């Protein structure tokens, strides 16, 4: 089958068009014909630092929408012909291929009202936002107060703003700096948008808000920590998803702040007993998309799935100027 892979860690130039064996399902697996994918910062991080296992080239890709073709012997949630979307696992071959084997417990039904491209933009960011909001920050549907989303125009921020605005009573404040990213955050539902090039505590006060009970730090956590320590409310919650080089949480002690990490891949990496929570969350997201409560964050379509087009997508993400999600669809004949 056709795929895009790499033979050694590097930048986007390491990606090549390759041929791979057709996957076979393990006991809980679906083999999915991949129709569309999207690209996430984790793709560039893994490409930059992780060598492929064994002698086979590595295949990236942590977002896909497609059609189930075969199933493993213990599969109960899906059958061949079902349309699905999912984000997969870090420790298995990814979605940059014509076919992919994925555990059914990580898969949701594709929203009926979205194209494959529109659906492929959503799984990883929706799961990350869902887990961050409800599992890590411990927000409920009845929660009130303020949520600060640092980097609101990125993939996760775009979905997190929507979820918090539509599913809770929180006041949502997003950070952005360019006119187009500010406009995007407002379109996603942010009540206020502040400039993350300023000290965030000062910018928040200028928006008329003294403190935030919840902070979702999606990038630049080490840079913003001094301001977060000032603006976060006593007994507040901070959750982060990025990779700060140094992150000293001691300044948060006097306020008894709860600090949590969110990694969407934890359940699949450790085969936790609640792996199927991702199946359930994606099905809930599908229903919310079908109802119009959430909307796809697809922003750019880069054409077919190929090394050349994936290199362009990786370069955009590395630039730090992407808004929403970049999607690729189908393989050239």
From TrEMBL:
Residues 1-20 are annotated as: Disordered. Pfam families: ADH_N, ADH_zinc_N_2. Keywords: Metal-binding, NADP, Oxidoreductase, Zinc. It comes from the Bacteria. InterPro entries: ADH-like_N, ADH_Zn_typ-1, ER, GroES-like_sf, NAD(P)-bd_dom_sf, Zinc-ADH_QOR/CCCR. The keyword Methyltransferase does not apply. The keyword Cytoplasm does not apply. Gene3D superfamilies: Medium-chain alcohol dehydrogenases, catalytic domain, NAD(P)-binding Rossmann-like Domain. Residues 10-328 form the Enoyl reductase (ER) domain. CDD domains: AL_MDR (cd08252). Belongs to the zinc-containing alcohol dehydrogenase family. Quinone oxidoreductase subfamily. This is Zinc-type alcohol dehydrogenase-like protein. It comes from Roseomonas haemaphysalidis.
């Amino acid at each position: 089958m056709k795929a895009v892979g790499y033979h050694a860690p590097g930048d986007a130039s390491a990606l090549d068009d390759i041929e791979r064996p057709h996957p076979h399902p393990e006991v809980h697996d679906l083999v999915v014909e991949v129709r569309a994918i999207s690209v996430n910062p984790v793709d560039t991080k893994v490409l930059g630092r992780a060598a492929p296992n064994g002698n086979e080239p590595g295949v990236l890709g942590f977002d896909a929408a497609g059609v189930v073709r075969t199933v493993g012997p213990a599969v109960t949630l899906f059958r061949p012909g079902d349309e699905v979307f999912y984000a997969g696992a870090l420790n298995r071959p990814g979605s940059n291929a014509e076919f992919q084997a994925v555990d059914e417990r990580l898969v949701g039904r594709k929203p009926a009202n979205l194209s494959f491209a529109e659906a492929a933009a959503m799984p990883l960011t929706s799961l990350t936002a869902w887990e961050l909001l409800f599992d890590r920050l411990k927000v409920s549907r009845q929660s009130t107060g303020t949520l600060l989303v640092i980097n609101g125009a990125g993939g996760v921020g775009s979905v997190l703003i929507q979820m918090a605005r539509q599913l809770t009573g929180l006041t949502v404040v997003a950070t952005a700096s360019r006119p187009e990213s500010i406009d995007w955050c407002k379109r996603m539902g942010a009540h206020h948008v502040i400039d993350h090039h300023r000290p965030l505590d000062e910018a928040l006060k200028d928006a008329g808000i003294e403190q935030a009970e919840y902070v979702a730090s999606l990038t630049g956590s080490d840079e913003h920590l001094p301001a977060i320590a000032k603006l976060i409310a006593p007994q507040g919650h901070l959750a982060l998803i990025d990779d700060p080089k140094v992150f000293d949480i001691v300044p948060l002690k006097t306020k008894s702040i709860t600090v949590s990490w969110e990694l969407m891949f934890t359940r699949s990496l450790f085969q936790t007993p609640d792996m199927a929570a991702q199946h359930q969350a994606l099905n809930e997201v599908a229903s919310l998309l079908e109802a119009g409560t959430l909307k796809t964050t697809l922003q750019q379509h880069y054409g077919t799935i190929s090394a050349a087009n994936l290199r362009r997508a990786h370069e955009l993400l590395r630039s730090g100027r992407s808004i929403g999600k970049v999607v690729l669809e189908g393989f050239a004949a």
